[in-house]
């Protein structure tokens, strides 16, 4: 059995505190630009990368796949894989980039992921997951955590989930993010697998009671800070929010520091835009496209007067060749007109 490294690194305690509210790993969404933007609204929440597969880390363009801005801390890298030596190698490589946590994906049901035998299908292979995390822990300077489902297909969650937590925690993991629904590996698309299998929050709460020494975050279908606070009050250690944080970032993130962490209120929406400008300007100067950043900002004014104009201008114009900060000015016009 590998001994958990938790506690040996004082930084881990800070990351665990940040995990009281985290933004879920989302492929194509939570890239570095998205995380930079989210960080402007919450200093404290823990941000996850998109999943990066271990083979991609080993053979791919490392700075593109793993690079991030120092302002994004605390940030957790999610890896996909099921080959212990390969995952350990990926962890060693990622170590140079300074992530605050390494997470293993045991929840993603997409075909591509299943065919490589990783993601949610690993719920059926807890011993293999234990081998993977043991190898990752041995290679990692920071805490290794696991994001999982409550089960897959015909599994009985009440039986397999505690057995999974038992086996994987014996290998040294003591922090889990549990998406509170099964994944159905046949017949449902990844998108359907995020909505159709029913949520079972009581089971996740029961896991915290059964394994009080584990740090457990609940994920799935949570859309408001009210809900997040209610889960924390029920004894869960953390709440992970995905789609709602992406589509309505200000609603989810801006209140988080004051309500969840006892910190400062966030800047207002216009100030968030102002603070994005230098970051966007640097990106454009180095050959990047405006749309690569502004696509994550479409929901910033969600629910506010003029929000449709903001979305429309950014959607129509940010993708044009040569589009620059003047598009942001134009997108802000509808809101500024209404505010004055
Ligand atoms: C576009 C998209 C991409 C996702 N990619 C990943 C991923 O790379 N790794 C992962 O563990 N989960 C992934 N998920 C699942 C989310 O992390 C989360 O578990 C799920 O959306 C449920 O949380 P929510 O209801 O708060 O969105 C993805 C979800 C979405 C919407």
Automatic annotation (TrEMBL):
<comment type="similarity">
    <text>Belongs to the dus family.</text>
</comment>
<protein>
    <recommendedName>
        <fullName>tRNA-dihydrouridine(20/20a) synthase</fullName>
        <ecNumber>1.3.1.91</ecNumber>
    </recommendedName>
</protein>
<feature type="binding site">
    <location>
        <begin position="242"/>
        <end position="243"/>
    </location>
    <ligand>
        <name>FMN</name>
    </ligand>
</feature>
<feature type="site" description="Interacts with tRNA; defines subfamily-specific binding signature">
    <location>
        <position position="311"/>
    </location>
</feature>
<dbReference type="GO" id="GO:0102264">
    <property type="term" value="F:tRNA-dihydrouridine20 synthase activity"/>
</dbReference>
<dbReference type="InterPro" id="IPR035587">
    <property type="entry name" value="DUS-like_FMN-bd"/>
</dbReference>
<keyword id="KW-0288">FMN</keyword>
<feature type="domain" description="DUS-like FMN-binding">
    <location>
        <begin position="23"/>
        <end position="323"/>
    </location>
</feature>
<feature type="site" description="Interacts with tRNA">
    <location>
        <position position="105"/>
    </location>
</feature>
<keyword id="KW-0560">Oxidoreductase</keyword>
<feature type="binding site">
    <location>
        <position position="78"/>
    </location>
    <ligand>
        <name>FMN</name>
    </ligand>
</feature>
<feature type="site" description="Interacts with tRNA; defines subfamily-specific binding signature">
    <location>
        <position position="308"/>
    </location>
</feature>
<dbReference type="InterPro" id="IPR004653">
    <property type="entry name" value="DusA"/>
</dbReference>
<feature type="binding site">
    <location>
        <position position="179"/>
    </location>
    <ligand>
        <name>FMN</name>
    </ligand>
</feature>
<comment type="similarity">
    <text>Belongs to the Dus family. DusA subfamily.</text>
</comment>
<keyword id="KW-0521">NADP</keyword>
<keyword id="KW-0285">Flavoprotein</keyword>
<dbReference type="Pfam" id="PF01207">
    <property type="entry name" value="Dus"/>
</dbReference>
<keyword id="KW-0820">tRNA-binding</keyword>
<keyword id="KW-0819">tRNA processing</keyword>
<comment type="function">
    <text>Catalyzes the synthesis of 5,6-dihydrouridine (D), a modified base found in the D-loop of most tRNAs, via the reduction of the C5-C6 double bond in target uridines. Specifically modifies U20 and U20a in tRNAs.</text>
</comment>
<feature type="binding site">
    <location>
        <position position="147"/>
    </location>
    <ligand>
        <name>FMN</name>
    </ligand>
</feature>
<dbReference type="InterPro" id="IPR013785">
    <property type="entry name" value="Aldolase_TIM"/>
</dbReference>
<feature type="site" description="Interacts with tRNA; defines subfamily-specific binding signature">
    <location>
        <position position="191"/>
    </location>
</feature>
<dbReference type="InterPro" id="IPR018517">
    <property type="entry name" value="tRNA_hU_synthase_CS"/>
</dbReference>
<feature type="binding site">
    <location>
        <begin position="25"/>
        <end position="27"/>
    </location>
    <ligand>
        <name>FMN</name>
    </ligand>
</feature>
<feature type="binding site">
    <location>
        <begin position="219"/>
        <end position="221"/>
    </location>
    <ligand>
        <name>FMN</name>
    </ligand>
</feature>
<feature type="active site" description="Proton donor">
    <location>
        <position position="108"/>
    </location>
</feature>
<dbReference type="InterPro" id="IPR001269">
    <property type="entry name" value="DUS_fam"/>
</dbReference>
<keyword id="KW-0694">RNA-binding</keyword>
<feature type="site" description="Interacts with tRNA">
    <location>
        <position position="194"/>
    </location>
</feature>
């Amino acid at each position: 059995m590998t001994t958990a490294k938790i506690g040996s690194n004082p930084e881990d305690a800070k990351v665990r505190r940040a995990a009281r509210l985290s933004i879920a790993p989302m492929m194509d969404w939570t890239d570095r630009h998205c995380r930079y933007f989210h960080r402007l609204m919450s200093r404290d929440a823990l941000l996850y990368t998109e999943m990066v597969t271990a083979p991609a880390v080993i053979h791919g363009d490392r700075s593109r796949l793993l690079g991030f801005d120092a302002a994004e801390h605390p940030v957790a890298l999610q890896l996909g894989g099921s080959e212990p030596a390969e995952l350990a190698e990926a962890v060693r490589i990622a170590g140079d980039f300074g992530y605050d946590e390494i997470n293993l994906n045991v929840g993603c049901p997409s075909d591509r992921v299943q065919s490589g035998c990783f993601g949610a299908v690993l719920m059926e292979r807890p011993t293999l997951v234990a081998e993977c995390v043991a190898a990752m822990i041995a290679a990692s300077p920071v805490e290794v955590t696991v994001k999982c489902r409550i089960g897959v297909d015909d599994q009985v969650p009440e039986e397999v989930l505690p057995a999974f937590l038992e086996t994987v925690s014996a290998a040294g993991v003591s922090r889990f993010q549990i998406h509170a629904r099964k994944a159905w590996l046949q017949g449902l698309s990844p998108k359907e697998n995020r909505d159709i299998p029913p949520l079972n929050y009581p089971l996740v709460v029961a896991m915290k009671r059964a394994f009080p020494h584990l740090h457990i975050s609940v994920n799935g279908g949570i859309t408001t800070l009210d809900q997040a606070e209610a889960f924390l009050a029920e004894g869960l250690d953390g709440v992970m929010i995905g789609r709602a944080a992406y589509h309505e970032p200000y609603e989810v993130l801006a209140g988080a520091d004051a309500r969840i962490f006892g910190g400062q209120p966030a800047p207002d929406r216009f100030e968030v835009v102002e603070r994005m400008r230098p970051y966007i300007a640097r990106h454009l100067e180095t050959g990047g496209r405006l749309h690569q950043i502004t696509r994550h900002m479409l929901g910033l004014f969600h629910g506010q007067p003029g929000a449709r104009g903001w979305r429309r201008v950014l959607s129509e114009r940010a993708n044009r060749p040569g589009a620059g900060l003047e598009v942001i000015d134009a997108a802000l016009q509808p809101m500024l007109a209404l505010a004055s």
